[in-house]
From TrEMBL:
CDD domains documented for this protein: GATase1_Hsp31_like (cd03141)
SUPFAM superfamilies for the chain: Class I glutamine amidotransferase-like (SSF52317)
Gene Ontology molecular function, alphabetical: glyoxalase III activity
UniProt xrefs under PANTHER family: GLUTATHIONE-INDEPENDENT GLYOXALASE HSP31-RELATED, PROTEIN/NUCLEIC ACID DEGLYCASE DJ-1-RELATED
Species this chain originates from: Streptomyces nanshensis
One Pfam family named in its UniProt record: DJ-1_PfpI
Name of the protein described by the UniProt record: Thiamine biosynthesis protein ThiJ
Family: Belongs to the peptidase C56 family. HSP31-like subfamily.
Phylogenetic lineage: Bacteria, Bacillati, Actinomycetota, Actinomycetes, Kitasatosporales
InterPro entries on file: Class_I_gatase-like (IPR029062), DJ-1/PfpI (IPR002818), Prot/Nucl_acid_deglycase (IPR050325)
C-alpha cells in the first residue's frame, strides 16, 4: 500500500504586513477532500505538523463564508470529525523520515505561510523526497511550504540561491486570487510572487477554477476548487510509480 505524509500547518494565526495577527489555520476543504480521495484510493495517509502540534482549521473554511455550500461545508466538518483522533496527535515533522513514505502532500489555508514556509524539518523532507523522485504535492497556499526547501547550502531564499524547486513548473493560489478573495494587500507576502522570485515557473489558470500542474514528481493545485483533482493526480502518480 502506498503511504503519503500529509503535512498540515499548526499555525492558528498569521502575522500580517502591519504586524497584527489574523486568525487562520488549515483550509477545511483542502484537508478533508484531499485526505478522502487518497484514502478511498487505498493510500495510507499519516498527518504531521511542526512539533506534532494539533492543527487548527481556519474558522472561515468551516462554513459558507468559505464559498462552499452549506451542504458541502457540513460534509467537510463531518469528515474532519472522523479524523479527530489523527488530528489530535499528529506526527512531529522532526521525527519523520522521507524513506518511510512514497510522497508528501501539503494542503493550504494561510497557515503554511506562517510556519511551514520556514520549517527546516519540512525543507529537509522536501529535499529528500525530490532527490529520490518521490511525489511532492502542494495545494493552494500549500506551496508556501515549498519555500522551506532552500537546499543544503542554506543560502538566502530572497535570492533563490539553493532553492530546490527553482526552474520547476507549478501552480499556486495566485496573487489575483489573494487580492480578489483572500486577504489582499495585508498578507505578509504573496506566495505566487515569492515563488516566482525564487525561480519557480508559475503556470496558473483562471481564478477560482480547478487547475493542477504536473512537472515530473511535482504536483500542485491552484486553489480549494482543485482539491479533488490534485489528490487524484497524486493517486495516478503513485500508480505510475508502482506504489499504489
Amino acid at each position: 500500500m502506498a503511504r503519503i505524509l500529509m503535512v498540515v500547518s499548526a499555525a492558528d494565526s498569521l502575522t500580517l504586513a502591519d504586524g497584527s495577527s489574523h486568525p487562520t489555520g488549515y483550509w477545511a476543504e483542502e484537508v478533508a477532500v484531499s485526505h478522502r480521495v487518497l484514502r478511498e484510493a487505498g493510500v495510507d495517509v499519516d498527518v504531521a505538523t511542526p512539533g506534532g502540534a494539533r492543527p487548527t482549521a481556519d474558522p472561515v473554511s468551516l462554513d459558507e463564508r468559505s464559498g462552499a455550500s452549506e451542504e458541502s461545508a457540513a460534509e467537510f466538518r463531518a469528515y474532519l470529525d472522523s479524523l479527530a483522533g489523527e488530528l489530535a496527535k499528529p506526527l512531529a515533522l522532526a521525527d519523520v523520515t522521507a524513506a518511510d513514505y512514497d510522497g508528501v502532500y501539503i494542503p493550504g489555508g494561510h497557515g503554511p505561510m506562517e510556519d511551514l514556509a520556514n520549517d527546516a524539518d519540512l525543507g529537509r523532507l522536501l529535499s529528500a523526497f525530490d532527490r529520490d523522485g518521490k511525489v511532492v504535492a502542494a495545494l493552494c497556499h500549500g506551496p508556501a511550504g515549498v519555500l522551506s526547501a532552500s537546499g543544503a547550502s542554506g543560502e538566502s531564499r530572497d535570492t533563490g540561491a539553493g532553492f530546490v524547486f527553482s526552474g520547476r513548473r507549478l501552480t499556486v493560489f495566485t496573487d489575483e486570487e489573494e487580492r480578489g478573495g483572500g486577504l489582499g494587500e495585508v498578507v505578509p507576502y504573496f506566495v505566487e510572487s515569492r515563488l516566482r522570485d525564487l525561480g519557480a515557473v508559475i503556470d496558473s489558470g483562471p481564478a477560482w477554477q480547478p487547475r493542477v500542474v504536473v512537472d515530473g514528481n511535482l504536483i500542485t493545485g491552484q486553489n480549494p476548487q482543485s482539491s479533488a483533482e490534485t489528490a487524484g493526480a497524486v493517486v495516478e502518480a503513485l500508480k505510475e510509480r508502482g506504489a499504489a
